[in-house]
Amino acid sequence: MALDIKICGLKTDQAMAAALAGGASHVGFIFFAKSPRYVEPVEAGRLREAARGKALAVAVTVDASDAFLHEIVEDMQPDMLQLHGSETPERVAELKARYGLPVMKALPLSEVADLDRIKPFIGVADRFLFDAKPPKGSELPGGNGVAFDWRILGGLDAGVDYMLSGGLNAANIGDALRLANPPGIDISSGVESAPGVKDPALIEQFFRAVRAARDDRAA
């Protein structure tokens, strides 16, 4: 099974080059002002040019206004929208219809009961991103470097397409792949030398760890 890999929160040419060199299937840009990974839509549009024909460019928003979403889509020309806020199924459907783009809906998980939150979005969102619930007091819905118990994903209905996120890094990706066997993974803070600062060496190390883990499983 092919494994999609998304490097999220990109802001520099060097980080983008490392993500593409490693074989990222998706590259993500954060449009949430409180995040250290925030990038202006015009700059994201410039950076995403390197990914054309190589990886899908994802615009990550958090309860963004219609005006800001219009600016993002116009300036960046994303291949996919990722909604990381409290958006409803109706909002997801509305934005899909408006822009003609696939939508990935992020949902925080911490226990098996949280899987029930997925049901209203089935058939509406094109894909899910499962992240850990943010620590108390955090202003960021994601990118907090926190993991959840990946074993709860064993309770998912077959056919639910998702990316696993939250606290992933080169040291634990083998366990994540073994326990959850996700169709896709998403990493942000796990390849940073400081909040919002992507480290090309850590990106390369992460891809090496993914390949090693997959080789071990195939052996």
If you had to describe this structure to a student in words, what would you say it looks like?
The chain is an alpha/beta fold and 219 residues long. It has six helices and ten strands, in the order E-H-E-H-E-H-E-H-E-E-E-H-E-E-E-H. The protein has helices at residues 13-22, 41-48, 66-76, 89-99, 173-180, 200-218; strands at residues 4-7, 26-31, 56-61, 80-83, 103-109, 127-132, 162-164, 184-187, 192-194, 197-198. The strands form two sheets. The protein has an eight-stranded parallel β-sheet. Strand 2 (26-31), helix 2 (41-48) and strand 3 (56-61) form a beta-alpha-beta unit. Helix 1 runs parallel beside helix 6 (200-218). It is globular. 39% of the residues are buried. The mean pLDDT is 92.
List keywords for this structure.
single chain; 219 residues; eight-stranded parallel beta sheet; alpha/beta
SSE order and pairing:
Elements: E1 4-7, H1 13-22, E2 26-31, H2 41-48, E3 56-61, H3 66-76, E4 80-83, H4 89-99, E5 103-109, E6 127-132, E7 162-164, H5 173-180, E8 184-187, E9 192-194, E10 197-198, H6 200-218
Parallel strand pairs: 1-2, 1-8, 2-3, 3-4, 4-5, 5-6, 6-7
Antiparallel strand pairs: 9-10
Helix pairs in contact: 1-6, 2-3, 5-6
* Order of the strands making up the biggest sheet: 7-6-5-4-3-2-1-8
Oligomer: single chain
Shape: globular
User: Main beta sheet, described?
Assistant: 8 strands, parallel
- How many strand segments? 10
SSE sequence, one letter per element:
EHEHEHEHEEEHEEEH
Percent of residues in β-strands: 15-25%
